Amino acid sequence: MRKVIVEKKILVANEEFANKNREFLTAKKLPCLNVISSPGSGKTTILAKTIEALKGKVRIGVIEGDIQTDIDARRIRKTGAPACQINTEGACHLSAAQVSFALHKLPVDTLDLIFIENVGNLVCPSALDLGETAKIAVLSTPEGDDKPAKYPAIFARAAVVLINKIDLLAAGDFNIEKAGADVFKINKKAKIFPVSAKTGQGMSAWCDWLEEMAAKKEIPA
Amino acid sequence: MHEAAIAQSLLDAILTEAQSQPGKPVAAKISCGAFSALNNEVLCFAFEAISKGTPCEGLKLDIEQKPIQAKCKKCGETFVFDLHRPVCTKCQCEEFELLPDAPLLLNEIEFDEK
């Protein structure tokens, strides 16, 4: 038996693409936000409403990741924004190579900001670097306020946590303070925006943050 | 949940390394951070399935999960972060920053030269 010390990164192929994406986005001065949540938390609705709210102020393009179908890309295109659909054909997350492909499909020179809507999954997408500027976590109130404690990886890495569907707060027992406190335990820098994409409540604070991000080309302090 | 994709990348990495080494790869040590969302049993199962018919068939995987480290902003102590008790282990304060998660690494391969 002979042992060979290797010490090499296993996800080196993904990392190379992630670094290329980062370089590309930096050269184009394009902030890119990787949106991660469980299925059904309202990611696409948030993006569609955000695009509408920022029309004429921030030009947004979207990379849509789903296991199957182009339903989400079509929803985004209805707002007038360009969208590129990636089907992962079973994979539970987007890879940096898929994002690289999509970045070259979008009219990046006419955009101020790019959203990546990752495959609905609160676990795996958080572990893969796509070369994004920041990660955005979405948690909807019907999912329960225990999610930041149960799925710390994504909440520890997110620059923003959107608590969506606050219009349903009265129907459940979601405690925004508890969820927020659990996020701050592991992520002191996180910005938390309670919103309802459906009614528009709270959306202006989130859109202001995005406007600042698009202007500064970096994560607002 | 994404262990199958990781298993494929791991298999590729070991096979690439094995090309320049005599013998059959029989064991490998890998390590990852606790936020990698990797389950040891699932990764071993996925690797076993994916390596069938390759020189890595039957290879034993040893996976080390590295805990999350944090650094205290007040006293400077670096400590293992405990989700159930998120305070600095030295000065007990809550002013700390989580350090980057350990990367997913292929640390070592064992070759049988018989």
Description of the structure:
The complex is a heterodimer of chains A (221) and B (114). Chain A has 221 residues and is an alpha/beta fold. Chain A has one domain: 3-Layer(aba) Sandwich (Rossmann fold). Helices cover 35% and strands 22% of the residues of chain A. Chain A contains eight helices and eight strands, in the order βαβαβαβαββααβαβα. Chain A has a seven-stranded parallel sheet, with helices on both faces. In chain A, strand 3, helix 3 and strand 4 form a beta-alpha-beta unit. Chain B has a three-stranded mixed sheet, covered by helices on one side. Chain B has a domain of 76 residues: hypothetical protein PF0899 fold (2-Layer Sandwich). The termini of chain B are far apart. Chain B has 114 residues and is an alpha+beta fold. Strand 1 of chain A pairs antiparallel with strand 6 of chain B.
Which descriptors apply to this entry?
heterodimer; A: 221 residues; alpha/beta; Rossmann fold; 8 helices; 8 strands; globular; B: 114 residues; alpha+beta; hypothetical protein PF0899 fold; three-stranded mixed beta sheet; three-stranded antiparallel beta sheet; 2 helices; 25% helix; elongated
Concise summary:
Chain A is α/β, with parallel strands linked by helices and 221 residues long.
The major pleated sheet of chain B works out as: 3 strands, mixed
Mean pLDDT of chain A: 95
What oligomeric state is this? heterodimer
CATH fold label of the domain at 3-67 and 102-112 in chain B: hypothetical protein PF0899 fold
- The first-level CATH class of chain A is given as Alpha Beta
Topology order of chain B in helix (H) and strand (E) letters: HEHEEEEE
Number of distinct beta strands of chain A: 8
CATH homology group of chain A: P-loop containing nucleotide triphosphate hydrolases
- The count of domains of chain A is 1
Widest sheet: strand ordering of chain A? 4-3-5-2-6-7-8
Report the major sheet of chain A: 7 strands, parallel
CATH class membership of the domain at 3-67 and 102-112 in chain B: Alpha Beta
Mass-distribution shape of chain A: globular
Number of helices of chain B: 2
| Secondary structure tally: strands of chain B | 6
Ranges of chain B where pLDDT stays below 50 over 5 or more residues in a row are: none
Percentage of residues in DSSP E strands of chain A: 15-25%
